[in-house]
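Anyone up for a design puzzle?
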């Protein structure tokens, strides 16, 4: 108990008791009354340095809330983990001149936000740091064709600023603009309950975390895909603050929940059959890995990426001289469809891996050189079955060109092969329809992340099961995946397989990357009352800032780039 007394008279004014029999905290104020609180409502205060109780409770999130009976035995709780979330592989056709010339792919699973729950399909993305979903205030095409989050319909929603302070009903809120390898999102902040799992025979884990509700989303790549948003799984360094990191909130939950500070990713690639992709939260699925895990430490963890040091790169029996100075690293990214290589060395890869094929031959079955990435204590080895496109690009099409970003080179994957190789070189490399092309893309990151940076996307992740260990120091585990691509064609589907799960056998894959490349926060310097003008305005007022509630106020914004690569 805690008793606060008058220093002169010694009279007790406030007493705070814990009654084990009632499992309740009791607050006694002077002689006036007793106030009884259930444990769950007040125990979040403990372990926090108390400066002002009310301020602390308003500014900080509670830890992970796992929906389970309060008195559940520890062992029984442990059996609930890991929580397995089925992922659907989606292939979206890229059409030019009325013909499908390629496909771009993504993996997404289901989550719910708020109470009552609002359901969304999101990419579980290890290369970015925020939970992002479209808002009902967003009028972008990409938002209107997807599920949109309605903050006014949720009883658990609180509008907040980037520092966690609550946005009052007559105040403006901060904004963030997040740049990805392909695409950009601008959004505002709420503190909300995000839930994963809850399938047949599965528990549901719910976390209170900062969410970015998008008020603008670029057409590419978001409009074309069926997923609604992104659930970033990176380290804290890519989030505006740890309170906005889903993984941070999940592993920072109540002790004794049984959840390990890990998650595991199993991607099937373009394999057909009965095996479904999945992400495991609070541990990993041992049934999806064939070999013991090899643990590799995360390099430069302060940057926020799940990246590893690459000591050597080999194509066939030839060792490239690019990593001798220790500058090579690889970002392990579930949101990228290709193997990204440093743009200056792209020709080394294309010249060695672009091979002739027989008519009708699947390029994945061709006899080609292996690509080996040597990391600490382990070698990632890819064969044509992993890195090659299934068939040749159509005549006149280069190796995966995405028009909106063609020719651009900005701290992100430069996703147009024609732009990187030069139109003539690209045309020469793929002039024949009997030429096999690898699934690689040029990456152009400046220091401190680049310039010798690789992105280990689907070609790597469909061969290796990966486990992401959040404990300090963070590390990544690699083990051969129990997938059809590795010779196992008859593994059972998970019990909670998504009925919408499907696989496509596509001729070509288009570049798709959600690796986070920039983050700019617009901080409101004036937090006073807003004008009560209607949302639809014209003239000078049209340049005023509008918020999701439909209120307009003079722009008083300070933009602060927290991250720009």
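Challenge accepted. My sequence:
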């Amino acid at each position: 108990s805690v008793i606060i007394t008058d220093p002169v008279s010694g009279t007790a004014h406030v007493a705070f008791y814990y009654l084990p029999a009632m499992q309740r905290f009791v607050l006694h104020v002077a002689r006036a009354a007793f106030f009884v609180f259930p444990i769950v409502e007040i125990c979040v205060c403990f372990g926090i340095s108390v400066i002002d109780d009310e301020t602390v409770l308003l500014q900080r999130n509670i830890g992970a809330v796992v929906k389970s009976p309060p008195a559940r035995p520890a062992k029984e709780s442990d059996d609930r983990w890991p929580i397995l979330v089925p992922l659907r592989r989606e292939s979206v056709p890229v059409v030019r001149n009325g013909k499908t010339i390629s496909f771009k792919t993504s993996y997404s699973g289901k989550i719910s936000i708020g109470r009552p729950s609002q359901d969304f399909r999101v990419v579980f993305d290890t290369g970015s740091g925020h939970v992002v979903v479209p808002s009902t205030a967003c009028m972008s095409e990409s938002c209107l064709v997807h599920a949109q989050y309605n903050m006014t319909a949720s009883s658990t929603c609180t509008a907040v600023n980037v520092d966690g302070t609550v946005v009052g009903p007559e105040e403006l809120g901060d904004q963030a603009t997040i740049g990805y390898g392909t695409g950009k999102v601008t959004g505002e902040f709420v503190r909300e309950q995000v839930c994963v799992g809850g399938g047949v025979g599965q528990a549901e884990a719910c976390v209170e975390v900062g969410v970015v509700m998008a008020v603008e989303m670029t057409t590419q790549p978001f409009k074309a895909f069926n997923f609604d948003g992104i659930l970033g799984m990176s380290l804290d360094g890519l989030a505006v603050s740890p309170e906005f990191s889903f993984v941070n909130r999940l592993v920072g939950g109540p002790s004794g929940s049984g959840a390990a500070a890990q998650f595991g990713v199993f991607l099937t690639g373009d394999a057909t059959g009965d095996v479904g992709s999945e992400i495991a939260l609070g541990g990993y699925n041992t049934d999806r890995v064939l070999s013991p895990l090899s643990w590799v430490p995360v390099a430069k963890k302060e940057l926020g990426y799940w990246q590893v040091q690459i000591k050597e790169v080999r194509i066939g029996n030839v060792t490239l001289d690019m990593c001798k100075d220790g500058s090579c690293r690889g970002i392990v990214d579930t949101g990228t469809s290709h193997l990204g290589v440093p743009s200056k060395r792209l020709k080394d890869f294309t010249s060695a891996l672009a091979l002739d094929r027989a008519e009708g031959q699947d390029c994945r079955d061709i006899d080609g050189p292996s690509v080996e990435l040597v990391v600490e204590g382990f070698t990632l080895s890819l064969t044509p079955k992993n890195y090659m496109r299934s068939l040749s690009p159509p005549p006149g099409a280069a190796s995966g060109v995405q028009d909106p970003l063609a020719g651009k080179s900005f701290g992100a994957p430069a996703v147009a092969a024609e732009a990187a190789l030069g139109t003539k070189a690209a045309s020469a490399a793929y002039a024949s329809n009997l030429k096999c092309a690898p699934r690689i893309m040029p990456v152009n990151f400046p220091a401190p992340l680049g310039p010798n940076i690789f992105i280990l996307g689907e070609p790597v992740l469909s061969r290796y099961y990966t486990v992401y260990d959040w404990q300090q120091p963070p590390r990544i585990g690699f083990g051969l995946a129990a997938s059809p691509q590795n010779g196992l064609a008859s593994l059972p589907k998970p019990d909670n397989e998504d009925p919408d799960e499907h696989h496509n056998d596509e001729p070509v894959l288009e570049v798709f990357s959600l690796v986070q490349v920039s983050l700019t926060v617009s901080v409101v310097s004036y937090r006073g009352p807003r004008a009560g003008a209607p949302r639809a305005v014209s003239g000078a007022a049209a340049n005023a800032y509008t918020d999701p509630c439909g209120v307009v106020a003079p722009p008083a914004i300070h933009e602060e780039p927290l991250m720009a690569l």
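A detail worth pointing out: The mean pLDDT is 73.
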